[in-house]
Amino acid sequence: MANTKISALSTYTGNTSGAYLVMNNSSNTESFKVTKETLFSGYSQPVIGNWTLSTGANTVSFTVPAGQSYIMWVNGNIPNGIVNWNATVTLSNSNVPAIGVHYGWYYLAGNALVLTSIPDQIVGTAGTIITSSPVITNSNIFTFGITNNSGSSQIVYYGYIKVS
Q1: Whole-prediction pTM value?
Q2: Taking the alpha carbons of 124, 130, 136, 137 in that order, is the dihedral positive or negative?
Q3: Are 97 and 88 in contact (CB under 8 A)?
Q4: What's the gap between Cα 5 and its chain centre?
Q5: 147 phi/psi in degrees, rounded to 5
Q6: CA distance 133 to 45
Q7: Would strands 81-90 and 19-25 be described as parallel, antiparallel, or unpaired?
Q8: Who's near 115: CB < 8 A, 6+ residues apart?
Q9: Largest CA distance in the chain
Q10: CATH for 47-162?
């Protein structure tokens, strides 16, 4: 038995770029163009950037708007040099600590990329209430120390996505 509903769908001849929503109500079939902006409205898009590190010690940072919760990351991956950092944080405003957890890792001391410092405004211990103040005045600026021992400029990527 042939599927008459599929064979009865008309071919859309308009602009075919983008996503489409096909609605089938018995004999009435309609096609509506839905852009990714419409389809994903209300969802945060990730912010992704990069730093070009010169050889030697580098201090780099990125800034997020206060008053939100985020998942954040740093990722550098070159031969003999890997640096990774990730965090989940909540910021109420820029003069109080960022509450959350974060982890940093690098391949080996002295290798091509070495993570020498991670942000110090993120506070929190599972199951506890924190009342301390941040050690910096702009807790929405996340600063990193990364040493580039590769002998040439290298790119390290960072990003974040707002989750609330």
Answers
A1: 0.74
A2: positive
A3: no
A4: 42
A5: -95, 130
A6: 31
A7: unpaired
A8: 83, 84, 85, 104, 105, 106, 144, 145, 146
A9: 72
A10: 2.60.40
